[in-house]
Amino acid sequence: MSFKTVFESQPDRRYIMFGGKGGLGKTTLSATSAFWLASQGKRVLLFSVDPQASLSDIFQRDIFGKGPVSIMRNLWAQEVDADRRIRDYQEEIRKKILDMYGFEKVPEEIDNYIAAASAEPAMEESAIFDAVVDIIVQGDYDYYIYDLVPLGHALYYLSMAKVYDEWINKITRLREEMREYDQVAATMKREETVQEDQILKELIYIKERINASSRILTDQKRTAFFFVVVPEEMIILDTRKAAELFAKFDVPLSGYVVNRVLPPELGHGHVPPYLRNRITMQERYLAEIRQTFGDRVLASELGHGNVPPYLRNRITMQERYLAEIRQTFGDRVLAYVPEMERDITGLEMIERLARRLFVDGEGGRS
Amino acid sequence: MADEAAPKKKKGGFLSVFKDIVYGMSSHEMTRHAVRTRASMEHLFILITMGDLLGIPILPPYYSLRLLPYVTPQIASWKRRMLRERDVTDVLG
Amino acid sequence: MNTLLAVIIGAVTVYLAYTLYARRIDRHVIQSDPKRATPATLYMDGVDFMPTNRNILFGYHFKSIAAAGPIVGAIVAASLWGWLPAIIWLVLGVSFIGWASDYSAIVISVRNEGNSLSAIAHRLVSPRARTILFIFIFFYLLLVAGAFVGIMATVLESQPRTQLGVIVLTVMGLLLGQMLYRWRMGLVGATVLTVGVTMLAILGGAWTEEIFKSLNTGLNNLAGGAPIVTYFDPTLANFKGADAKIMPSLLFWALAICAFCYAGSVLPIWRMAQPVVYVGFWLTATAMVLGLVGAAAASFVKPEVAQFVIPAFKGFNPQLGPAGIMPLWPMLFVTIACGAISGWHALFGAVGTARQIENEADMLPVGGGSMLTEFLLGLLALLAVSVGAKGAPVGAFATGLGGFISVWGVPIQYATSLAFAAFIVIVLVVTQLLFRVQRVTLSEWLGDVIPPVRNQHVASLVSIALAILLVLTGTWVYLWQLFGGANQLMAALSLLLVTVWLSSVGKNWLYAGLPAVFMYVTTLASLLVTAYNIYVNVYQPNMAAGRVIPVIGSGLMVLVALLLVAAAVIIGIDGWRAFQRYRHRPVQQPRPAAVRV
Questions:
Q1: Using CA atoms, how far apart are residues A90 and A222, in angstroms rounded to an integer?
Q2: Quick one: pLDDT band at residue C336, thresholds 50, 70, 90?
Q3: Neighbours of chain A (3+ CB pairs under 8 A)
Q4: Cβ B88–C137 below 8 Å, yes or no?
Q5: In a domain, A207, yes or no
Q6: Rounded distance, CA A332 to CA C299, Å?
Q7: Alpha-carbon gap: A16 to the closest alpha carbon of chain B (Å)
Q8: Contact C73, C484 (CB under 8 A)
Q9: How far apart (Å, rounded) are the C-alpha atoms in residues C92 and C97?
Q10: Among A66-80, B72-86, C235-249, which range has the highest average pLDDT?
């Protein structure tokens, strides 16, 4: 199965996510997919919560914290400024306290609490996921492509989502029980009505939000999750572990994309026989995999000629790891993305990569 | 014995004093129980939702902040009650 | 003597004690200040601290202290010494000791940040004072539970007309809890329905009389007519003492009461315990109000029910049992506790009522006013016994109260049914709460040392088993007096604590100090007398006859009495030392007089 067919065969999967360790090219791949889908006439929102503003970099314009910005026909990009969101949110809470009780200033104890809560690492995760829910709930796009936060964060959130859900159910029940006592006290005092429990309302809201965000991550029908890997040992190991964990949380894994594949043609230069053999072997295996599973391997040439030893070593290593990737992830590897000759920034480069990934049938061996 | 309990106060008069006393005798205990149970649940609730202050990250902090305005007035009494020394006779009240 | 005169004496007592004495103490010694913020307003948390209107609080405090104590105490005392000593003790006790105890416990808690008496004792007297107070509480609960289960089982077994009402009360209590908490019914409708049906069942007790009679007979026949326990009871045969038998039917009713209390203790409090109290309140309040007004009116309307038929005075030291002694002093003063003074009130007032006091000016009407009102209840009970005379002590009370109620035109048999039911209900609702409190106390107190008692079922069953053991010893009067001793020791302790506190803040301590000394000496003496009585009248005869259960039970009672004496001596020494310490060097009050905003 190829990257393209994944999209074409499962049109309901409107929430596209790319996961993987930082710096593996998730942004590149999500931008490429977004570009391709948009050029197919789908309305696409590509969004990111990366504080490094990687979408701004790739599209070469500043969209950080500006809401959805139109990039081209059918394609919008949005970069959430999580820090500012948290800051605004803190202010909102403070203002609410002042308004509700007519205080001159927020009591010190409470203010300290707000500061302490905001300094926690979990604060950012939960703020980010809330932002994601906001984006998905509000828009009317055909596709939402989420340049996901690094794996650890996603995992943390996923693991907590179930716990949160149970907790909130418990708390909500506690709150409902409290309401019963309220009503009985009112009956006993023969008072007419009980004030509506605002907290109960908030809890129901929070429950919906948390459910929504964990649902987005785990919805088998509407979500496609891609792992981005590169042929390096540590990355493969980490990804394998993460994949097991994701499976445990019912994340619908749609496949793996191997990025930064150095073109095997390098091996045609003056290289030692050993390396040449290895490259030949790799080709044989790649061919076999393509034949068996119909995978598409994308690679680009870096040109022939004399290859410096450093690069040669890299290629050797890469061959080994590619084999390992195939062994580990098997037919779920959807694409092998070539290392391009320069940074992928700007629509032009994105278009080139998209063509290779989605259009050129032979895996970009042009 | 209403005259013992009631100051010779203004209007509302005898009837409302009498009503209060009868309420105090018949229902106050049940009301108090309901109100107290509710309030101690409120404190439990604060502990659960604001527990990350004590290092127990139970609710995502982003959402616990959302609840903070509603429990602001209770935070002080909650802390005081948690810290208050209690002994066996407290169960009598 | 007639009932009108007694009611007048009662009203005058209350009026004089309140205006001439109590109010003066409140103004000049305590100097209650309406501008000073109370713990309820300072620390309001909606759980323990909650400012409450003084009228409501008066009703609440009165209902909480007005339990079965004044009735049972009056019944026993009148039959031992006659009505005159009892009425004198009631009047003097409440005027000079009773109100001061209830009031001062509230004051001391309000002025000490709403702390419980045990916490204040810990700080002011000695750390072990708190532990000793726990011991008092524990045995107090145990003894009173045993005494109440015993007296109720006797009444239920011997009065087959009363049982229907109790059963229906239980059902209606459960129903009311359901109505309020689950079905969200209005209070008035639910009250009218449940109280009405219960009242009907009480009045219609005769319908099922035969059924319950044959139940008793059936149970006894089942055991072949053999008693479960035989014991030597010194109160039988005109106080000469004779063998008595506990039949299966009595044990059955004792166990039925325990099952009721067990449910009340382990079910959520709103399910059963509180609704039963609530329904019971309306029934007993009806009977008491009708009875009190009836007692005053009887002299004019129906003089034949207002005649005192028991002797005014039976002697200073009636013989009880083969070798027993029952000297008026100190025994009268522990036999009648709650109508004159009770330590339980102080204990409860400090944690329950004091934390709801909204204004210092409310302390006297709530604390003192409630106690003086409770005195009227004790007086009514005494009057009822004095005019009733027929049957056993409880029967005398019911006959007398029924007579007063009949003044309103209620046929006498219904009035008596209501009076019997009022007695049982008031004792029953208290007993179930006692077991609940005892369960909690047990698991809080011993839970760390003996983990199993933290389980509510274990703790409840332990409490119930101990109470049943006491019932089976059959020496009910001693059990009651032992309870009175524990209770009055708590009163002495609370007064002692108040005295220490007064001297620590440089106030005149005489109004609490003199009663404290009196109560302390009296209760110590009474405990020793009771221990002696149990030993010579119960323990020895039963030991001689080789009866195991009464021997264990009465041995336990002697042990408890001596333990209480030892605890009281320790706390007396500690209290005296603390008193001397503060008298020479008063400390300023820890809490600044924060002004209410």
A1: 33
A2: very high
A3: B, C
A4: yes
A5: yes
A6: 103
A7: 25
A8: yes
A9: 8
A10: A66-80
Minimal CA separation from C46 to chain B, in Å: 6
Question: Cβ of B41 and A181 within 8 Å?
Answer: yes
Neighbours of chain B (3+ CB pairs under 8 A): A, C
Q: Is residue C369 less than 8 Å (CB to CB) from chain B? A: yes
Q: What pTM value is reported for the model? A: 0.80
| Residues 158-177 (A) with a CB less than 8 A from some CB of C | none
Cβ atoms within 10 Å, residue C200? 12
**Domain for residue A173, yes or no?**
yes
Tokens at residue A347, please? 């629509």
As a whole number, the mean pLDDT across chain A is: 76
* CA nearest to C140, candidates C331, C344, C378, C330: C344
Tokens 């001159």 label which residue?
A104
Last-in-domain residue among A103, A123, A143 = A123
CA distance A68 to A47: 8
Nearest Cα residue to C335 out of C535, C116, C73: C73
B33 domain residue, yes or no: yes
B24 CB within 8 Å of a chain A CB:
no
DSSP C113-159: TT--HHHHHHHHT-HHHHHHHHHHHHHHHHHHHHHHHHHHHHHHHH-
The answer to the question of residue B39 being in a domain is yes
Q: What is the mean pLDDT of residues A234-257?
A: 79
Tens-place pLDDT, residues A165-205: 777 788 888 888 888 888 888 888 887 766 777 888 888 88
Residue C185: list chain A partners with CB under 8 A: 187
Do the Cβ atoms of C561 and C122 come closer than 8 Å?
no
Question: Cβ of B90 and C116 within 8 Å?
Answer: yes
Q: Determine whether C380 is exposed, middle or buried from the number of CB atoms within 10 Å of its CB (0-12, 13-18, 19+).
A: buried
Range of the domain at B70: 7-84
Contact A180 C186 (CB under 8 A): no
**What's the whole-number average pLDDT of chain B?**
76
Structural domain including A191 reads 163-213
Whether A187 and C186 lie within 8 Å, measured CB to CB:
yes
Radius of gyration from C-alpha coordinates of chain A: 25
- Between residues A265 and C135, which one has the greater pLDDT? C135
CB contacts, 8 Å: C187 with chain A: 187-188, 190
Domain termination site, one of A151, A184, A213: A213
Residue A57, in any domain of the structure: no
Q: What is the pLDDT of residues C159-169, one digit of tens each?
A: 888 999 999 99
Domain ranges in chain C? Answer: 3-584
Asked if C233 and C244 touch (Cβ cutoff 8 Å), the reply is yes
Substitution target in A87, A120, A164 with the highest count of B β-carbons within 10 Å is A120
Bridge partners of residue A143, in order along the sequence: A44
- Do the domain assignments include residue A195? yes
What is the three-class DSSP state of A361?
coil
**Residue C594 pLDDT > 60:** no
The closest of A266, A251, A7 to A142, measured between CA atoms, is: A7
Its ipTM equals 0.88
Q: What percent of chain C has pLDDT over 90?
A: 53
Size of chain A, expressed as the number of residues it contains: 366
- Are the C-beta atoms of C460 and C177 separated by less than 8 Å? no
Instruction: State both tokens at B48.
Output: 């659960």
Q: How far is CA A18 from CA A131, C461, C555, in A?
A: 17, 62, 80
CB atoms within 10 A of CB C20: 10
Number of domains chain B is built from: 1
Q: Which helix (H) or strand (E) holds A281?
A: helix A273-293
Residue A96 near chain B (CB below 8 Å): yes
Cα distances from B57 to residues A36, A344, B43, B48, B54, in angstroms, run 41, 40, 17, 9, 8
d(CA C400, CA A104): 66
SS3 B15: helix
pLDDT digits (tens, 9 = 90+) for A195-223: 777 888 888 888 888 777 777 777 878 88
